[in-house]
Design goal:
heterodimer; A: mainly alpha; 2 domains; B: alpha/beta; Rossmann fold; six-stranded mixed sheet; four-stranded antiparallel sheet; 10 strands; about 35% helix
Chain lengths: ~525, ~260
C-alpha cells in the first residue's frame, strides 16, 4: 500500500490522470472503451511495435560492417530521442503546471510543497519517456530475445532520457511563463514541440528528397559516423551509447547525471513556479497597459463578409491546439511539399507530375475538410447566428467561402510554382484542388456532423460520425487525388474513372441535404 | 429609442395554439399568449414547464409542431428574416467565442444585424461602459468571469436596439451588483419603448420588474395577469408571488387545495 500523501502515492495519481487523458482518446461518442477492448488495442499496438523492433534488430544483425560505427549511430538515435522527449516534456510541463489548475488545491493540503512538485515532475518524466520508449524498447526486447541481452540496458537509458527531458522541459516551461505569461507560453511550447518533431522528420528525409543533393540520408549518416568513430570507443562522447548497450559504469553515470539534473530542477520548482506566476502577473501589468491602449472602435465599418472572414480566421489562429493540429497536418505532407517545390524540369516524367498533382489535391482536400468542419459544423454560437435576421443557410455558405478562398490562394500559388512553365499542368492541378476542396466543403454544408472545436481530432472516430460519412469523405479526397493524377500525368481515362468517386460524396450529401437542419443556423 | 424593425400593428409577441412535442412528450401544448408592445412580461413555471422551449420557438431556434408565432405582426415561419430583425435573445448560459475579444464580439454581432458603423461603434461603447466591461474590451472572452460573459451576451443582444428582448434566466450566476446593473438596464430599455420577456426562477425579480406575469405548467398557460390580478384570481390578497405561484402549480399537479 502506498502511504497517502507520499511521493509515490502522489505520482500514482499523476499517472492515473495522465492515463485517463490518454484513454479518453479512444472514447467513442463520449462512451469509454471497455477494459477488454482497451487491453486488446494495447496488445495490438505492442505487437506492431515489436514487429518493428524485430525488423530493426534483424537488419542490424545482418550488417556486421556497421559494428564499428555502432557507438556514433546509437548516440545519434539517443540524441533524437532526447530531443523529441524534451519537446513533449515542455508541452506536458506547461499543461501540468500552469493549465490544469489543480496546484492550488494540492498546495493547500498538508503535503509538503516540494513533494507535490517532485511528483508532478516525475509525472512529466514518465510521460516524456513514453516517446523514446516506443521507439527503443521494442528493439531492446527483440535484441535480447535474439541473444544480445546487454541491449536491455536501453530500459534504464530510457528512464535517464525521461528524467533529463523532464528537467529540461520543466526548466524551459518556468522560464517561458516568466517571460511571456502562461497563455503565450503554451502556444510557444506547442509550436516548439511540433518544430522539434518536424526537424527530426525533415533531417531524416531532406537529403533523400532534394534532387540537387548528391547524398542520400544513409550515405550522409555513414560518412558522419565514420568521421565520428575516429574519436575512439573510449571517448566520453559515447557514454550514453555505452550506457544503452548495458555497460554498468556508463549506465550508472548517465542515470546519476539525469537524476541529479532532475532533482536540481524539481527542487527549485516551487520557487520557480511561484516566481513565474508573479512575473506573469507582472506581465499582467502589461495587460493593464494593453487594456488602456485597446482600440476604442475596431472594425465596425467592415461589411459582414469581411467580419465573417476575420472572425473565422481569428478563431483558428488564436487556438493553439488547433494551430498545432494544422501544423501537424502540414508537417505530415512535408516530403510531398518538398517534391512539389522542386523545379519541374527535374521531375522524372509524367507519373511523377501526376503524383505531385495528386498530392496537391489531397493536401487541399484534407485541409479543407478540417477547416470547413471547424467553421461550419463546430460553430460556437449557432443560436446567435440562428437569431440573426439572415436567410437560412446564408451564413453557412458565407463561412464556406471565407475558409476556402485563402486555402485556394495558397495552394494555387504553390501549384503555379511547381508547374511553372507548364500552364496546362497548373490548370489541371488548380481544377482538382478547387474541385476537391469545394466538394469536401459542400459535404459539410449539406450533411454536417455537428461538434465542438475541442473534438476536432475525434470527429471521425466511430460513434462520433456515421461510417457512411467517413467513407464518403475519404472517397472524395482520394477520388480528386486520382483525377489530378490522371489529368496531370496524361492518363485522361484514369481521371474519368476517378471522377464518380470524387463527385459521389458531394452527390450523396446533396441527396440527403435536409440534415443541414442539425446546425440550427 | 428602440425603433428598429417592422412597425407592424398588434402586439409585440403573439403565440396562437403553439405546440411542440419531444418524442411522445408534449413540451408546449397549445399555448396562447399576447404580449403588448412596451410591456415587461415575466414567464414563470416549474422546471420542465415548457418556458425555454417556448422562447426558443419564438427566437426561431426550434420549429413548432403546430400553431403560430408572430413578432410585431410578422409570422416567424413565413418571414423569418423580417420577424427576427427587431428581436434579440439571451440564453441562460450564453456560449461566447472564447477567442474573440469583447469588442470584436460586438463588432461581429453588429455585422450580423447589418448595423451601420456610425451607429454600432458608439452604441457598443455605451453598452460596455454601462455594464462595466469597457476596460476589458480588449480581453478574450475566455478570460471573463461568468457574470462578465452574461453581461457581454446582454450587450450583444442590446446592440441593435431590439424592440423585443427575450431573456432566459438572465440573472443566473450574477453577483448582487451585476444583477442590479442588469435589472436597471432592463427597466431602462422598457422605459425607452422596448418589450422584454423573461423567464426566471427568482420570483422576487418577476414581482419587482414585470408588469404582467404568465405562469405555465405542462406546456399550457395556467394563469396570467398583474400580480394583483393573480392574487385576486386566487382570492388571496396580501399573498406573495411565491405563495400564488406555488399554489397554482401545486393545484395543477393535484397536490394543492
Amino acid at each position: 500500500m502506498l502511504r497517502p500523501g507520499g511521493l509515490w502515492w502522489l505520482l500514482r495519481w499523476e499517472l492515473l490522470l495522465a492515463w485517463r487523458g490518454y484513454a479518453a482518446r479512444f472514447e467513442r461518442g463520449g462512451r469509454r472503451l471497455g477494459r477488454r477492448r482497451l487491453a486488446l488495442n494495447l496488445f495490438g499496438l505492442l505487437g506492431l511495435l515489436h514487429l518493428y523492433g524485430f525488423g530493426i534488430a534483424l537488419a542490424a544483425r545482418g550488417l556486421p560492417q556497421l559494428a564499428p560505427l555502432q557507438l556514433p549511430l546509437l548516440s545519434l538515435v539517443l540524441a533524437v530521442a532526447l530531443l523529441t522527449a524534451t519537446g513533449a516534456a515542455l508541452a506536458i510541463a506547461i499543461d501540468l503546471l500552469f493549465v490544469r489548475g489543480d496546484l492550488d488545491l494540492l498546495c493547500s493540503t498538508p503535503a509538503p510543497v516540494r513533494r507535490i512538485f517532485t511528483a508532478r515532475g516525475l509525472g512529466v518524466a514518465v510521460q516524456a519517456a513514453a516517446v523514446p520508449a516506443t521507439m527503443l524498447l521494442p528493439v531492446a526486447n527483440a535484441a535480447a530475445l535474439l541473444g544480445a541481452p546487454r541491449w536491455l540496458g536501453l530500459y534504464p537509458a530510457v528512464a535517464a532520457i525521461g528524467l533529463a527531458a523532464a528537467a529540461l522541459g520543466l526548466g524551459l516551461a518556468v522560464l517561458l511563463v516568466r517571460a511571456i505569461g502562461p497563455a503565450r507560453a503554451r502556444i510557444v511550447a506547442l509550436a516548439l514541440s511540433a518544430v522539434l518533431g518536424a526537424s527530426v522528420l525533415l533531417g531524416i528525409q531532406l537529403p533523400n528528397l532534394l534532387r540537387g543533393s548528391r547524398h542520400t540520408t544513409g550515405s550522409l549518416l555513414l560518412h558522419w559516423s565514420q568521421g565520428a568513430a575516429s574519436a575512439g570507443p573510449d571517448s566520453w562522447l559515447w557514454l550514453p551509447a555505452r550506457a544503452a548497450r548495458g555497460e554498468p559504469a556508463a549506465l550508472a553515470l548517465c542515470l546519476l547525471a539525469a537524476a541529479a539534473a532532475f532533482v536540481l530542477v524539481a527542487g527549485s520548482l516551487p520557487r520557480g513556479f511561484a516566481y513565474a506566476l508573479e512575473r506573469a502577473a507582472g506581465v499582467g501589468g502589461r495587460v493593464a497597459a494593453r487594456r488602456e491602449a485597446a482600440p476604442q472602435r475596431q472594425g465596425f465599418e467592415q461589411g459582414l463578409w469581411r467580419l465573417m472572414f476575420v472572425k473565422e480566421w481569428r478563431l483558428i489562429v488564436r487556438d493553439p491546439q488547433l494551430l498545432m493540429l494544422l501544423v501537424q497536418t502540414v508537417i505530415g505532407f512535408i516530403p510531398g511539399f518538398i517534391l512539389l517545390l522542386r523545379p519541374v524540369q527535374s521531375w522524372s516524367g509524367a507519373a511523377q507530375q501526376g503524383a505531385a498533382a495528386a498530392l496537391a489535391a489531397l493536401i487541399a482536400c484534407v485541409l479543407a475538410d478540417t477547416m470547413v468542419w471547424l467553421a461550419v459544423c463546430a460553430e460556437d454560437m449557432p443560436e446567435l447566428l440562428a437569431c440573426a435576421p439572415r436567410r437560412r443557410g446564408e451564413l453557412r455558405r458565407m463561412k464556406l467561402v471565407v475558409i476556402l478562398l485563402p486555402l485556394w490562394l495558397l495552394t494555387f500559388a504553390v501549384s503555379l510554382w511547381a508547374a511553372w512553365p507548364r500552364p496546362l499542368l497548373f490548370l489541371a492541378m488548380a481544377a482538382c484542388i478547387a474541385g476537391g476542396s469545394l466538394s469536401v466543403g459542400l459535404f459539410h454544408l449539406w450533411l454536417p456532423t455537428p461538434g465542438s472545436r475541442k473534438d476536432i481530432r475525434r470527429r471521425y472516430r466511430r460513434g462520433n460520425a456515421p461510417l457512411g460519412r467517413i467513407l464518403a469523405t475519404m472517397a472524395m479526397q482520394f477520388g480528386w487525388a486520382g483525377c489530378a493524377w490522371g489529368l496531370a500525368g496524361g492518363y485522361p481515362l484514369a481521371a474519368l474513372a476517378a471522377l464518380p468517386l470524387a463527385l459521389g460524396g458531394a452527390g450523396y450529401a446533396w441527396l440527403r441535404r435536409n440534415e443541414g437542419d442539425l446546425l440550427r443556423y | 429609442m428602440y425603433t428598429e424593425g417592422p412597425a407592424g400593428p398588434g402586439p409585440a409577441l403573439e403565440l396562437a395554439g403553439l405546440r411542440k412535442h419531444f418524442g411522445g412528450t408534449a413540451a408546449v401544448d397549445g399555448l396562447d399568449l399576447r404580449i403588448g408592445a412596451g410591456e415587461f412580461y415575466a414567464l414563470l413555471g416549474p422546471n420542465g414547464a415548457g418556458k425555454t422551449t417556448t422562447l426558443r420557438m419564438v427566437a426561431g431556434l426550434l420549429r413548432p409542431d403546430g400553431g403560430r408565432v408572430r413578432i410585431f405582426g410578422v409570422d416567424v415561419a413565413a418571414e423569418p428574416e423580417r420577424a427576427k430583425r427587431p428581436l434579440a435573445w439571451v440564453p441562460d448560459e450564453p456560449m461566447l467565442y472564447d477567442k474573440l475579444r469583447g469588442l470584436e464580439y460586438l463588432e461581429f454581432v453588429a455585422g450580423l444585424w447589418g448595423m451601420p458603423a456610425a451607429e454600432a461603434a458608439p452604441r457598443a461603447r455605451e453598452l460596455l461602459e454601462w455594464l462595466d466591461l469597457w476596460q476589458q474590451r480588449g480581453d478574450y472572452a475566455e478570460t471573463y468571469s461568468k457574470g462578465m460573459r452574461q453581461k457581454l451576451a446582454l450587450a450583444g443582444a442590446l446592440l441593435h436596439r431590439p424592440r423585443l428582448l427575450i431573456l432566459d434566466e438572465p440573472l443566473t450566476g450574477l453577483d448582487a451588483a451585476a444583477a442590479r446593473q442588469v435589472k436597471d438596464l432592463l427597466r431602462q430599455i422598457v422605459r425607452e419603448g422596448a418589450t422584454v420577456v423573461l423567464t426566471t426562477h427568482i420570483l422576487e425579480v418577476a414581482e419587482r420588474l414585470a408588469e404582467r406575469i404568465g405562469i405555465i405548467a405542462g406546456g399550457r398557460l395556467i394563469a396570467e395577469g398583474t400580480l394583483e390580478q393573480l392574487r385576486a384570481q386566487r382570492g388571496a390578497g396580501g399573498q406573495t408571488l411565491e405563495d400564488v405561484f406555488l399554489d397554482l402549480t401545486a393545484r395543477r399537479e393535484g397536490r394543492g387545495s
